[in-house]
Every structure is written in C-alpha cells, then in structure tokens.
Design goal:
The longest helix has 6 residues. This protein has a four-stranded antiparallel β-sheet with strand order 3-2-1-4, with no helix packed on it. It contains two helices and four strands. It is globular and about 30 Å long. Helices cover about 15% and strands about 30% of the residues. The chain is α+β, with helices and mostly antiparallel strands. Strand 1 and strand 2 form a beta hairpin. It starts with a strand and ends in a 7-residue tail after the last helix. The protein has a single domain, classed as OB fold (Dihydrolipoamide Acetyltransferase, E2P), CATH 2.40.50.
Length: about 70
C-alpha cells in the first residue's frame, strides 16, 4: 500500500528512516550501486521528498504501527 512520507529520523546505526503517515517506518538508505537515493543524503533532499509515496509492506501485512 502506498503511504506518504511525513518525517524522518536516524536509527541507532545512523541510517535514515522515513516515517510514513500510516505509523510505520521504512529505511531509506543511499547504498549504491544497489540502492541509489541521493536525496536522502541532504536535508534539502529529504525535505523535498516529504509527501512522496513509498510502498509500505507493513500495511500490506496489517502490521501494528511503529510509532
């Protein structure tokens, strides 16, 4: 299910995690060449992606909220 990004936080390993409107969280790593998300590396890039939709597997599985 597609859910919009409403915020971000860093996890214990200093990787960025997107907070989704549904209450679930999803890592948004920039890990080339496998995952290229240049936008996650800057504050401006992350801010520009607020409201962008990500596929939430936890919603598809009816998992409880993360926050």
């Amino acid at each position: 299910m597609q859910q919009p990004i409403v915020g971000y936080h860093l996890d214990s390993e200093q990787h960025w995690v997107a907070e989704l409107e549904c209450g679930h969280c999803q890592h948004v790593r920039h890990n080339p060449p496998w995952v290229v998300r240049n936008w996650v590396t800057t504050e401006m890039g992350r801010a520009a992606m607020l409201g962008h939709y990500l596929g939430c597997k936890k919603c598809d599985e009816n998992a409880p909220r993360d926050y």
